[in-house]
Amino acid sequence: MNAAGDAPASPGGRASLQAAPAARSRSIRSRGRPSPEDAAAIDHELLGVALELFLEHGYGGTSMRQIVGSAGVSKTTLYSRYPSKADLFRAIILRQIDRLAPSTSLQSDAGPLGLEEGLRSYATRMLAASLHGEVLGVNRLIFSESRRFPELGAAAAERTALGVKRIAEFVRTCAQGAGRECSDPEGIAEAFICMIRGWYVNVILTNRDVPAAERERWVGRAVRALVRGQDAW
Fold first, then answer.
1. Beta-carbon contacts of residue 12 (< 8 Å; ≥ 6 apart)
2. Average pLDDT, stretch 3-9?
3. Residue 42 half-sphere exposure, CB side, CA atoms within 13 Å?
4. What residues form DSSP beta bridges with 108?
5. 170-206 pLDDT tens trace
6. Closest CA to 102 of 1, 220, 207
7. Exposed, middle or buried, 205 (CB in 10 Å: 0-12/13-18/19+)?
8. Contacts (Cβ under 8 Å, ≥6 apart) of 138
9. pLDDT at 18
């Protein structure tokens, strides 16, 4: 769930994705090694094209050859950056996390949020982002194809581990600030992330369009239930 402000935009049309990388590739070859700005732009285009093809044709239905052709770059350009589809997919996941900037939901302009407020803010923001656009598309892809392609599940597991680590640090910091003991912040963080994930998966599997107010009410109830047990943490 990205994990779903900072929500990623939906992928643009393929024609616009093709022209820019093709022109840039020719320009780079004439100058030699690309500048850092050119290299970043090429990475951006490659991930955008790959994401569009994955969402349109499925992970299994997309080949590296198709990505090369749609991006208008050489095989060397693609394979030197992403040796496999698995590497491309993992990079797409990490880019989504980077765009969502989940850590910012744990603080305000005045500083870090309190425990309940921070968890509520994090859950609300991630769920909102994950129910729309490319984050939703990627999650549906993981659900439908991870059995045939375990690398999709591995990328999702890495994303979950990053979320657990982030929340565990937040829980630990809040406990220290309140003068409380917290013997297992990782376990609390894992329970929190899985709680959010369970609600999200249920919504996706039932194809429900959940109003924001209903989602926020659920988040409030779930977070309160978790926080009320903090004396036993």
1. 48
2. 39
3. 27
4. 111
5. 999 999 998 988 999 999 999 999 999 999 999 999 9
6. 1
7. exposed
8. 2, 51, 54, 55, 92, 93, 96
9. 37
Query: Residue for token digits 């770059």?
Result: 73
Q: In the predicted model, is pLDDT for residue 19 greater than 80?
A: no
What residues have CB less than 8 Å from 98, skipping those under 6 apart? none
Out of 3.40.50.150, 1.10.10.60, 3.90.1210.10, 3.40.50.1860, which CATH number does the structure's domain 14-94 have?
Answer: 1.10.10.60
Distance CA 191, CA 195 (A): 6
**Sign of the dihedral through C-alpha 64, 67, 68, 69:** positive
Give the DSSP H/E element, type plus range, for residue 112.
strand 111-112
Contact 70, 49 (CB under 8 A): yes
